[in-house]
Design goal:
The structure is a single chain. The protein is built from 20 helices and 25 strands. The longest helix is centred in the last third of the chain and has 20 residues, at 404-423. The chain is globular. The protein starts with a strand and ends in an 18-residue tail after the last helix. The model has no long low-confidence stretch (mean pLDDT 92). It has 3 domains: 3-245, 4-Layer Sandwich (Glutamine Phosphoribosylpyrophosphate, subunit 1, domain 1); 255-436, 3-Layer(aba) Sandwich (Rossmann fold); 444-588, Rossmann fold, CATH 3.40.50. It is of the alpha/beta class. The protein has an 8-stranded antiparallel beta sheet with strand order 3-2-4-1-10-9-11-15, with helices on one face. It has a 7-stranded antiparallel beta sheet with strand order 5-6-7-8-12-13-14, with helices on one face.
Length: 606
Amino acid sequence: MCGIVGYVGKRQVVPVLLDGLRRLEYRGYDSAGVAIAQNGTVKVSKKAGRLSELEEVVPYEEFSQATIGIGHTRWATHGKPTDDNAHPHQDCTGDFTVIHNGIIENYAELRRELKEKGHVFRSETDTEVIAHLFEELYEDNLEETMKKVIARLEGSYALVVVSVRDKNKLLAARQDSPLVIGLGKGENLLASDIPALLPYTRETIIMEDGQLAILTEDSVTIKDIKGNTIEPKIFHVHWDDVAAEKAGYEHFMLKEIHEQPKALKDTLAGRITEDNKVKFAEGFALTPEMVRDIEKVYLIACGTAYHAGLVGKHLIEKLVGIPAEADVASEFRYRDPLVTDKTLVVVVSQSGETADTLAALRESKARGARVVAVTNVVGSSVAREADDVIYTWAGPEIAVASTKAYTTQLLALSLFAIYLAQERGKEATYLLEEIKKLPEKASRVLETEARIKELAEVIAKHDDAFYIGRGLDFAVSLEGQLKLKEISYIHAEAYPAGELKHGTLALITEGTPVISLATQPSLYEKTVSNIQEVKARGAYVVGIVKEGDEKINEHADVVINIPEVNPLLSPIIAVLPLQLLSYYAAVARGEDVDKPRNLAKSVTVE
């Protein structure tokens, strides 16, 4: 997620902005910029790359008397990391300067409309349309213009504007993207996260969706979208600086687990049309004609992304009726794969820099395949070299163990499978109404956290654990066992439940934890039989089932319920308790959750 900082007061503003942005570097970014108001003008300095590169181009002496400004670190979603695409963005006149976190879903329509009216765009971003909307809609009152602008926006935003038309004032608005105000004496600040505010104040206002804020050096006013003034709650920050980076969570991994409802919502943004179809926009040019020519699909990835690929394989075969194969990238290019110009290759990588996945991509293109990339990082190598890109928009992951990147990969692949089906005349859009409910259902799972923590403290006492499931539940089991062993160092293995009798039952002894997923109705009875097999040999059985399942109580020691969801989409929900289970098991064992031994976040070597 991008970083936002704003200041109005009596201090020299440039050091405040740069210090605030530096305190938000943990969020990940690829470019940075500041806008400084002084002597009736607003001047922008911005640069692709690290903050140190921005610091080299900011004219400190010129802005030495400036006391109002805004700053931004961008994590690319629309447009590659370049100087022009960095924030802040201005309108044609330079009167309105904007920074923004989030995604404007209808930016393409707004951009076309504004260009037809003569507006000239300098970037590829969705954010720049906001600045031009201010110019187009302004009628002598910045606050009223803000309301008009917001009324035209669809999507999520934490939005801040500074304007020469209303000096010594910052205006901000929030919808589905965090924004925090810091209350000082003779100064006020705002930021996308609390750490940027801590050197100046610990008295904060957490803005809520649908609110506007007007900041001057002496006052902060909060209003709703209709203009009614709201009495805000003041939140006093007790956390230290390190805890503040994690929004009060003990670890980044836990924070990122809890960010998944929003990440899922962001991944969905703008991808389901009003007539209930899937649409991919920027970076995607796979035509219906191309889709109809596909004879086989490969899904290629490593680690967690490979587990997402296994789910994608199942969905494509089920919904589209095309043969699909999930393959480990490090094996794929060494086995002379049967790839032709009728093959579609889908590469999945959080970072977009995974060496083995890149090598598989290049091998596939050399053999004539069209390549679609599913990645989280705009401008990454995978994104640049693929023919088509589907961005997951999960936001940066700091913890080495992937959580929100995985669930957004699952969602992106689900949408992609539905897209392939619709373009080949298959009926799959019935899933879209269910898909829209996933963020809310994910939130409901996270509400069971306390119960899962108690369970994890039991699991943490063991040195071995097994995960079983059938069909899509087996794919989720693979991800669950990976999470447990990579951060808690408990030896864990996952098996198709029907394979237990072919050797693995020899390892089941009294008290051995067996985490059993049973969310697939067509395989439910078979899975229950397999659960009975391990229970008869003394296993400590944890059942992951859907709400209302009473039968499992006869066989499991502990039952974790997840909300009812279409079986094809259940992996997105069923993995959440497994993530929490792994996290709390690692905490109970005293391990360094965010930085597990011997592992790296991005694997850029073979």
